[in-house]
Amino acid sequence: MPPIVAIRDLARFVGEQVTLQGWVTHRRSKGRIAFLVVRDGSGNCQAVASVQDVSADQFEQLARLTHESAVRLTGVVREDERAPGGFELQLAGVETVQLAEEYPIGRKEHGIEFLLDHRHLWLRHKGPWAVMRIRDEIVKACRDFMYERDFLLIDSPILTPAACEGTSTLFETDYFGAPAYLSQSGQLYVEPACIAHGKVYCFGPTFRAEKSDTRRHLTEFWMIEPEIAWAGLDEIMALAEQMISHIVARVLERRSEELAILERDTTKLESVTPPFPRLSYDDVAERLTRPDIVARAQQAGAPPFQPGSDLGALDETILGEMFDRPLIIHRYPTAVKAFYMEPDPERPDRALCMDIIAPEGYGEIIGGSQRIHDHELLARRIDENGLPEQAFRWYLDIRRFGTVPHAGFGMGIERLVAWISGARHTREAIPYPRTLRRLYP
RNA sequence: UCCUGGGUAGCUCAGCUGGUAGAGCAGGUGGCUGUUAACCACCGGGUCGGGGGUUCGAGUCCCUCCCCAGGAGCCA
User: What is the set of domains in chain A, with CATH numbers?
Assistant: First the structure.
């Protein structure tokens, strides 16, 4: 029996007889010679057979193979310039494992709705294949980065009793007769854990029932959230910029083939190195009220920027385009930010927080802050925001027993994947996207 | 929720000032010994998103509802 070989390793078997297990992506039957291209998950390979190479029955079988049929192909590996990839299989035997039915996804263009309806099949195609491999590399790079810096993984619960941030909408579910909610952030749960371990992070799915209906939004998305005791805004800005740089460098190094498949302009990724530009909210507000920027925003159809309010999506895009690497914006007005953010002691109407905006219009990829560690102040904020104090008792407790300054941030994985891979929608950055209008497949 | 653009064959789309519906791909049949999204010939394939209206006549005009895409708001 010839060895079963992955297409990626074919170069090591030139001149030898091997078996490939895969799926038919193309068939070009040309009279008494037939070409077959198969995919096995590790790559693509052309196989060729002429009538005299195989039995009449097998040649007939070859000619009938349909798109996505599962096959075992046995033959000798040959180097040949005419073959895509440089190697091909000279067929000696074909086994049809399953003759596929008429395959819905054609070789021409399709709309995004059709492709997402067939996501279970679309995952096989080279674009999604490359994006998923980049996603895998990004996730691994995140975990390695955390591990190498002595951050401990603390998984946060997905079923929670109440809101982490009062503003966002939650998915409600029935918990033995009582309401429970799908977590929209693990932050509140890593804060106590950083008191136990110093440096921690959580990494898991989060859920937001927001009516946000853009290509940047999912209702279920993955987020990595580091949290550090004895740290403030400066420490998390430095950590975030190192983390993003580390991830981008790692993808450039190990997933260049996938970036090439996606035709990603890698020069735009190579410039992503520390330090990132840092602007305060007030710097940004000044820029956004300059006449030329105002004119540009108006032309793009952006609602006019109001000093003191949060930034709009187009404001972020315009700001992001001013730099060749991610932009850190810090010290937003306390009034527009979450209740748990520490006020700047030098200017209490500004919070010690930061957002990081990805270049090329991919939007906010990180949001973080120093957390309020004073019990009285936090209790007042919870009250002012109309949040149920009962539900936050445990969270307030942390401020009663050895409270210290601490800070952390959340990074959205799909936006990061979309930006790095150049995908048009965050929906393409997750295997099975959930959006306002999609819960299938 | 609002703004803009769409909905015609399995898919992607064309269809002029209203006159009985088209292409490419996919599928089927036949041909072809080095193809690269192979090619050539032939064949099958339609509730023109639903409902109502105007008209001798509606894919085309009007009303209404549904669905989709892009954007805004909110957010990662």
Answer: 7-98 (2.40.50.140), 119-277+323-429 (3.30.930.10)
